[in-house]
């Protein structure tokens, strides 16, 4: 393994003091998978007490500790390395963090790996002997591209592991071993996931969405019936096959997010963009007719989005809500040969919330998530958009009239002022000069 030189010096010192050094968890797994993603290196130190390890690390820099309960330490001048003593964990409550932790520097490796969730995460790298220790068959599971739990009895103690499986299989494009799948299903049926905080759920969903194939994670959650209502409702919402040959809205959404995963790096807000693609059609179950039409599903989607509690950032919520509302507008505009004024009004509606670049991207992903798309339709869309951008830009024009100008021209500073400002801006988009706008407003509100 590639290791920091200071880390190697510390490891050698630990060995000299009679300790043993094992690198565990994701960093070992990712070496096997040849995954170059950045992550912390988790170091487990055996045959040393908490105090002995702390004193040894203190020789090399400032030590930050996370309490004796977990016996985790970090060096300020060795970023990305976590030092810990081997421990066992015992569930004592229903919440994710309700564990009793037992530190044991002499814990046998066979018992130490029992607290790991998956076999591929239970691999250990013996620093002294420079070899992988595989006590659970993790190497074989990686070769098979499958995830499998280490110990069914300890696995069910942490319901977050169900969502961790979803993000792992999406990130590494793996399958779930059948017994592990059944275990996850049983945990969902017993309501264990209800004890997870929305922050924890949000974090795992973000990892799924930022993976190369997010649909794999959500298909797994669908199979074990762990989807929230606003996604599970999409499964039984059917669409007109002449518009959506791929079938139901959930299938469409999965195609959209996989296409979006390929283009998210081109957007201004990749994570919020992926959330928008996942949620863009959540209004369809409310408005879809018997023949498969879904009128005003964008507006319905904005209302449903108000019930999506796991997204808490106001800025992110504004972005996603705007994308849900306007995800169809550009395609409809191109198909109907929309006028310049419609495009300019759209720029104003998304101004400060979503970039035109991101709106174009979600429009394309929505179009491509339909099983089959005629090339000429796609080309026509870009011809239309490129013309608008070349002549009108991608930013809403700066207003010619502001509140100060209105007050200087005799208007009162009251609740009506904002409405008048909006009207002034729309007259500006229609091509009127500042002088003509003021004349028109004075005449109307004299």
TrEMBL record:
<dbReference type="GO" id="GO:0046872">
    <property type="term" value="F:metal ion binding"/>
</dbReference>
<dbReference type="GO" id="GO:0016779">
    <property type="term" value="F:nucleotidyltransferase activity"/>
</dbReference>
<dbReference type="GO" id="GO:0042245">
    <property type="term" value="P:RNA repair"/>
</dbReference>
<dbReference type="InterPro" id="IPR006674">
    <property type="entry name" value="HD_domain"/>
</dbReference>
<feature type="domain" description="Poly A polymerase head">
    <location>
        <begin position="21"/>
        <end position="148"/>
    </location>
</feature>
<keyword id="KW-0694">RNA-binding</keyword>
<dbReference type="Pfam" id="PF12627">
    <property type="entry name" value="PolyA_pol_RNAbd"/>
</dbReference>
<dbReference type="GO" id="GO:0005524">
    <property type="term" value="F:ATP binding"/>
</dbReference>
<comment type="similarity">
    <text>Belongs to the tRNA nucleotidyltransferase/poly(A) polymerase family.</text>
</comment>
<dbReference type="InterPro" id="IPR003607">
    <property type="entry name" value="HD/PDEase_dom"/>
</dbReference>
<dbReference type="GO" id="GO:0008033">
    <property type="term" value="P:tRNA processing"/>
</dbReference>
<dbReference type="InterPro" id="IPR050124">
    <property type="entry name" value="tRNA_CCA-adding_enzyme"/>
</dbReference>
<dbReference type="InterPro" id="IPR032828">
    <property type="entry name" value="PolyA_RNA-bd"/>
</dbReference>
<keyword id="KW-0460">Magnesium</keyword>
<keyword id="KW-0479">Metal-binding</keyword>
<feature type="domain" description="tRNA nucleotidyltransferase/poly(A) polymerase RNA and SrmB- binding">
    <location>
        <begin position="174"/>
        <end position="228"/>
    </location>
</feature>
<dbReference type="Pfam" id="PF01966">
    <property type="entry name" value="HD"/>
</dbReference>
<feature type="domain" description="HD">
    <location>
        <begin position="249"/>
        <end position="351"/>
    </location>
</feature>
<keyword id="KW-0808">Transferase</keyword>
<keyword id="KW-0692">RNA repair</keyword>
<dbReference type="GO" id="GO:0003723">
    <property type="term" value="F:RNA binding"/>
</dbReference>
<dbReference type="InterPro" id="IPR002646">
    <property type="entry name" value="PolA_pol_head_dom"/>
</dbReference>
<keyword id="KW-0548">Nucleotidyltransferase</keyword>
<keyword id="KW-0067">ATP-binding</keyword>
<dbReference type="InterPro" id="IPR043519">
    <property type="entry name" value="NT_sf"/>
</dbReference>
<keyword id="KW-0547">Nucleotide-binding</keyword>
<keyword id="KW-0819">tRNA processing</keyword>
<dbReference type="Pfam" id="PF01743">
    <property type="entry name" value="PolyA_pol"/>
</dbReference>
<protein>
    <submittedName>
        <fullName>Uncharacterized protein</fullName>
    </submittedName>
</protein>
